[in-house]
Amino acid sequence: MSKTRYAVVRDNVVYAYVEGDNFETRRWNLVYPIKDGKVSMDLVSVHPNKNESGTLSIERRVETIEFTLDIEKRLMTRDDGTEFHLVDEESL
What we know:
The chain is mainly β and 92 residues long. It has one domain. It has strands at 5-10, 13-19, 22-25, 31-33, 38-50, 56-70, 75-78, 83-88.
């Protein structure tokens, strides 16, 4: 993988960075490994549930999303088809 640092951009918003074999989120600075041109991450959400007797419980849901990187085309595609552009950070 290239050592150039790329910004992951969609609609003029930088969401993350790709450098070497790492994908780093911009908002939380979480770093995920890039393996075989792919990045996957789990999104965890918590949902309150109220049963018939009125007791409140919490349900934890995990959704895994995956991104495929194509450095030559400077493109990153989410598993739902959403495309992000990889822009050399120095050109921003």
